[in-house]
Amino acid sequence: MELQIKDFEDYEKTYRYSVEHPEEFWAGIADTFFWRKKWTNVLNWNFKEPNIKWFENGKLNITENCLDRHIYTNGDKPAIIWEPNDPTESARVLSYKQLLEKVEQFANVLKNNGVRKGDRVCIYLPMVPELAIAVLSCARVGAIHSVVFGGFSAQSIADRINDAECSLVITADGNYRGTKVVELKSIVDDALVQCKTINKVIVLTRARIGVSMIKGRDVWWEDEIHKVESQGNPAYPAEEMDAEDPLFVLYTSGSTGKPKGVVHTTAGYMVYTGYTFSNVFQYKSDEVFFCTADIGWITGHSYIVYGPLSQGATSLMFEGIPTWPDAGRLWDVVAKHKVNILYTAPTAIRSLMAAGDQYIDDKDLSTITKLGSVGEPINEEAWHWYNEKVGKGKAPIVDTWWQTENGGILISAIAGITPTKPGYAMLPLPGVQPVLMDENGKILEGNGVSGNLCIKFPWPGMLRTTWGDHERCRLTYFSTYEDMYFTGDGCLRDEEGYYRITGRVDDVLNVSGHRIGTAELENAINMHSDVVESAIVGYPHPVKGQGIYAFVIVEDHQKDLELTRKDINATVVRLIGAIARPDKIQFVRDLPKTRSGKIMRRILRKIVEGDFANVGDTTTLLDPSVVEEIKEGADKMK
Ligand code: WTA
């Protein structure tokens, strides 16, 4: 079966086939991959428990698909091009052959340090090639990786390590970000005070800063590599994995409680990320693909590492930030490495747009042929700027909608093949069956409707469970609507049948493309000793998409509130990480509550949007006068 869709007619035909014959369709796609042993059954599923199995009894290792199988035909092709934070430092290129060598080497390091199939390994590394190497080495050994984004705090790392009972952490001394050095090892050390399951810490040298190294526990990456070299660099044949063996856990925030560990399994995830990468971006064999996400997020997992590599693509990894040394850096990277496909987030586009066209106008972006957007709704202004300034009106923009739980892109245009429209994710990919639901659980048929977005049939890349708590998975995603996966997003299907994602309908914020759970953040704020209660809502933010607005009741209003504000911020940064720091904190006497004590967030949302006239009926509140007070306070915050 041909992997890539050829034209719009082919898309329609393929889509129809994928819905009418899903098993035959996905078997055909899976056949383009390398299996040690073929599956005996394509799909076994129910959304009730849920229990979802793809390619049952198939045996494989994803790294043989991402590395070994390309060696014979494409061994010298660059697999990873790495651009460092500091533009004066040299870039690095790893061919498929070199990447495989490094992965086998590090797989041996993992083995020497006691890692076995099924063990969980926490990875807290900067965006350096060793991060991709560490991820792939885990997969080679059959260990389950849990990558934690470098912006999370020690407490968040500890929570994740403890939840998955990781036995080993891979980190670096420090991480460069613009002019800053983040002391990663020191953050890990703080985390490990709370972790009983960790036996070993492997520390990569990156920033060459002083770190504490505990005898018997902490070892240097470089020393461990030397040991493998002195053993004669033995090959590391890939561990044979079952199709449904977990490949990784990735923690993500929801509307309640602590982040949950989304579990993805080997074969389905591989097939889905490979297929969607190849199709959505219409990747051609010599193209350079640049996804600006961090591998600490799902976008990096699927479209820096696994998707591109399984398709033998060249994937560019960037350590730095788009605005350093100046707001032209991203365009310099594009020009330097002759990037053909750029995949980035609306928040980055908006911040570069705000910096001014002088940073982009003289850059050579002539190699760009396709553009992608991900992570949050893209506003029309940003879409047009992206189209005109970056794509010069010639590069199709694929606005890709998906989630950590989905493994890969679900709704998106296919570059150059299906139509595009600003702000629209457009059409479901083959194999994806979206439905819109009304509040009463009825399916909204036809076009020109808006509702809650669900998916009614499994796709190979979907989550299988949440680590250690299957019931939570069922409750979160499969219990709102019967026999449906519920996304948590609202969606419009316009008159022409095109999909536009309108944002979360639950209490999850999307701040600069990062998911922030309001309950998790409120819990963190409430941990501060002066805080009685808090409520978080999102407000429209020109660059971040959504900003974090905190309403906080403190114990003693006579205190220096400026200082309390700083203390609350410091508490959030310590408990979650800088990405969750509130943009605005408004101190209030009380919150708008119903007689049963429920906070009316709807009212708070209207207030932070400045839409005072539409706060709605407040007569059912315990104390309607708080609304007026909060409005006055909010006015002063502007
Ligand atoms: C939002 C990121 C509009 C959405 C891959 C989803 C989007 C959440 C888009 C998942 C898009 C992602 N248009 N909204 N193209 N892409 N979202 O898990 O609300 O970090 O539920 O996955 O981001 O975020 P996550």
From TrEMBL:
Question: What is an annotated GO biological process for this record, any one?
Answer: acetyl-CoA biosynthetic process from acetate
User: What sequence ranges are listed for the domain Acetyl-coenzyme A synthetase N-terminal?
Assistant: 11-66
Taxonomically, which superkingdom? Bacteria
Record InterPro entries? Ac_CoA_lig, ACAS_N, AMP-bd_C, AMP-bd_C_sf, AMP-binding_CS, AMP-dep_synth/lig_dom, ANL_N_sf
The molecular function terms in GO held by this entry are: acetate-CoA ligase activity; AMP binding; ATP binding
- AMP-dependent synthetase/ligase domain spans which residues? 68-458
Q: What class of enzyme is it?
A: ligase
Q: Which UniProt keywords apply?
A: Acetylation, ATP-binding, Ligase, Nucleotide-binding
So what EC number does this one have? 6.2.1.1
Q: Which residues form the AMP-binding enzyme C-terminal domain?
A: 520-598
Its family remark reads: Belongs to the ATP-dependent AMP-binding enzyme family.
* Name the record gives this protein: Acetate--CoA ligase
Q: Which organism is it from?
A: Albibacterium bauzanense
